[in-house]
Amino acid sequence: MEKSYISIENVSKVFQTRKHSIAALKDISMRFEKGEFVSIVGPSGCGKSTIIRMVDDIIKPTEGSITVDGFTYDNNVPLSSEQIQKLGFIFQIPNLYPWFTVKENVMLPLKIYGKDLKEYDERANSLLDGVGMLEYANAYPAEISGGMSQRIGVIRGMIHSPDILMMDEPYGALDESTRETLNMELLKIWKDTGTTIIFITHNVEEAVLLSERVYVMESHPGRVIADIKIDLGEERTLDLIGEERFGEYCTEIENLIGKIELAKIK
Amino acid sequence: MENYALKNKPIMRLLSTGLPPVVLIIILLAVWQIACIAGNIPKWMLARPTDVGVALTADFKELLPDILSTYINIIVGFLLAVAIGLVIAVLISSFSLLSAALTPLIIALCCIPMVTLVPMMMLVLGTGPDVKIIAIIIQAFPLVNLNSVVAFINVNPERLELMKSLKANKVQTFTQCIFPDGIHGVFTGIRLASIMAMVTGVASEIVGGKAGLGSRIIYFINFSKTADAFSCIVYIAVLGILIYGIISIVERQIKW
Amino acid sequence: MKINSKAVNICAPIIVIILLIILWQIICTVTNISFHVLPKPGEVGTALVENFRGTILLDTMASVKVMLIGYCIAVPLGFVIAAISSQFTLAVRSIMPVLIILMLTPMATLVPIFKLFWGVDPTLKILIVVLQCTPVIAVNSLSGFIYVPEAKKELMRALGCRKWESFFRVTVPNAMPQIFTGLKLGCILCTIAAMSADISVGQGGLGYRIQVASSLSATDLAYAAIVVAAILGVALYMIVSVIESRIVTWK
User: Which of A149, B78, B122, C69 places its Cα 20 to 30 Å from the Cα of B137?
Assistant: First the structure.
């Protein structure tokens, strides 16, 4: 079988606690093409976050293999610095370090990668400017609002221009309007850079609005139940939400998830 | 309840935090003074605060070498204890086997009164300052160490995950994430260690030693110079306040 | 890498202790160090057994008595001081710094002065222990009492609880970790204070035995007494830790 840009093949993950072993993911396979924007939706506990953490090599799969851009992860071989820098991860919470300024937080990945920070000063400033945070560059995280922090968390994940961006419900904690603004910003960045984006959310509308493809998952143990292509064209704006086809996609996915919930109640 | 108007002006703030304890101390001293006079307690038995005040200034020149010796011993011992405690904490928090092997022993070490070892160590090392400094280090470093280890191990898991995501190496993870995240735990340990350093430093001077304020107290009491003995205690308390105050000021510089 | 963690936690420190004792023995044998300076571990063990009934048992009992009585007075005393002063903002502000000063002042300095009043009464030792332990317990409990999350307090107010009720149901459980920090430090200071009181007051006790034995060059006996003192300190600490793990189960 030909490998995609990112291939997750027959991956299982079992978490070992002191007394129990919990099967978080069971035999899942997913593929992502270069430049795609794919969302993963599903109920909480279905292991969506675990998948991108395995792609980011934060946790190792119990079984199965993960291949990113031709390199298959091996527990005994650490990623090369080139491979590491292909990956960008954006957390559910801003996860800024309170001991660094806003700009130092944005620059942190470069610092860890051992880059010359001066060379990237302009890029950091333009990213900060892009999300309207340039004037707060020297502020500390405690001095800015939650929405501002989340923007900083997002551009920190992009500072090193990763080829693959993994986002773990990045706007889950924000209010509706901030979230819409940030989603539109994200689409613009995606179009401009051609980054491959794996976007985790439990908000079906958000998934349909943003992505070209949606994976639907169910829980206990987590597995993929559907892979739905969203054919809504290139231009995605908030106006789409009113359209009939948009509603159909949402209903289809919600039904899929709903079935799982119903089955669980029975 | 809180008077917010007070909070805005630094001078008022200083007054509102500094004044109550000073007033309390003055009241306690006044009670002491009155009790001495009213009870007609002989001066050799319990010195009056006014006499202690006089002794404080009158003895200063005579006591200076002892003050310096006590202050230097305790400060040097305390600083070394902090450094040693931190280094061991870094090692222990990085290797779990080391933690299992050493943590119970380190807890035991701070429970063992080092004062008891002072006479023994003097047999080997003589009556110089090194015995006292060693005793202070052994008694004080476990507290820095234990508190730091707890802080380092309980690092915020999300902050740590960012380091894993960036594939930071061990040194980077420690300096960029674990250490700043646990700094307040480290300071708790440092503050507790300062208490141990004070107690052990002075106790070992009382137990065995020719120099230092601790041995001076015994000397003064033997000559029934109670007021002078109290002035030594005041000088010891001043060192305690000094160390504790500096630690608090340094910790306040940390804004997170 | 899967190691049975419980076995490691018990075995590793024991192995380290055995290694240290062996190292001690080797150093003594190789350097031929004088018995009066550093006796061999075997000699200390023998001294411990031989003198156990004669002197060490009595001294241990004396020290344990001082430590326990002193500690048992200091704990409620420190707690009450903290509880009462936590109710008044002014009291917190004025008492806290004074307690910190007391906590930092080694009470052993007061022994010679107290001797003038009471002579060499054994109760003097208890007083020293109480004076040394109480401030630490009070300071830590007080700092726990002060920082109660506002939301929890509001909940109690909304439920119409009385002040004392909210103190015992919310403030105290919330401050438990800090209270136990104070209690554990109290253990350590209690042992140190008892030993230094023994040394400077005399009248029996392990500290006194160490002093006497070392001045008579009976270093093996002195070390035997130190070992017992160490065990006492560790035991007291362990007891409090076990109680803590029973009470503070949510930490």
Answer: C69
CA B91, B96, B98, B103 torsion-angle sign: positive
Residue B46 lies in a domain: no
Over its length of 251 residues, how does chain C's per-residue pLDDT go in tens digits? 345 567 777 788 888 888 988 998 888 888 877 777 788 888 888 888 888 888 889 999 999 999 999 999 999 999 999 999 888 888 888 888 888 888 888 888 888 788 877 777 778 899 999 999 999 999 999 988 887 777 777 777 778 777 788 888 888 888 888 899 899 889 988 998 898 888 888 888 898 888 888 888 888 888 898 889 888 888 888 899 889 888 877 65
Crossing angle of helices C172-201 and B179-207, rounded to 10°:
30
pLDDT digits (tens, 9 = 90+) for A29-85: 999 999 999 999 988 878 888 999 999 999 889 999 999 988 888 888 888 888 899
The answer to whether residues B56 and B37 belong to one domain is no
Contact call for C104 and B202, based on CB within 8 A: no
Chain B stretch 61-120, residues whose beta carbon is closer than 8 A to a beta carbon of chain C: 97, 100-105, 107-108, 110-117, 119-120
Residues of A in contact with B164 (CB under 8 A): 58
Q: How far is CA A200 from the centre of its chain?
A: 5
Cross-chain Cβ contact B255/A140 below 8 Å? yes
CATH number of C39-247: 1.10.3720.10
The domain tally of chain B equals 2
Token code pair at residue B15: 């007054």
For the stretch B8-34, pLDDT in tens is 566 777 777 778 888 888 999 999 899
Cβ–Cβ below 8 Å for A142 and B255: yes
Q: Are residues B11 and B102 in the same domain?
A: no
Mutation site for C-interface testing, chosen from B116, B143, B216 by largest number of C Cβ within 10 Å: B116
In angstroms, the Cα distances linking B3 to B6, B12, B24 are: 6, 11, 21
How many Å apart are CA A182 and CA A176, to the nearest integer? 10
Cβ neighbours for C168, distance < 8 A, ≥ 6 positions apart:
none
Chains that touch B (3 or more CB pairs under 8 A): A, C
Residue from B160, B161, B163, B165 whose CB has the most chain A CBs within 10 Å, to mutate: B165
Q: Whose structure tokens read 């006014």?
A: B50
Q: What is the pTM of this model?
A: 0.84
C229 within 8 A of B112, measured Cβ to Cβ: yes
Same domain? B157 vs B221 = yes
Q: Are residues B69 and B33 in the same domain?
A: no
CA distances from C54 to C60, C94, C201 (A): 11, 50, 21
Domain regions of chain C by residue span: 1-33, 39-247
Q: What is the dihedral of CA A145, A150, A151, A153, to 10 degrees?
A: 130
Q: Which residue of B has its CA nearest to C36?
A: B123
Same domain, B122 and B243: yes
- ipTM, 2 dp: 0.88
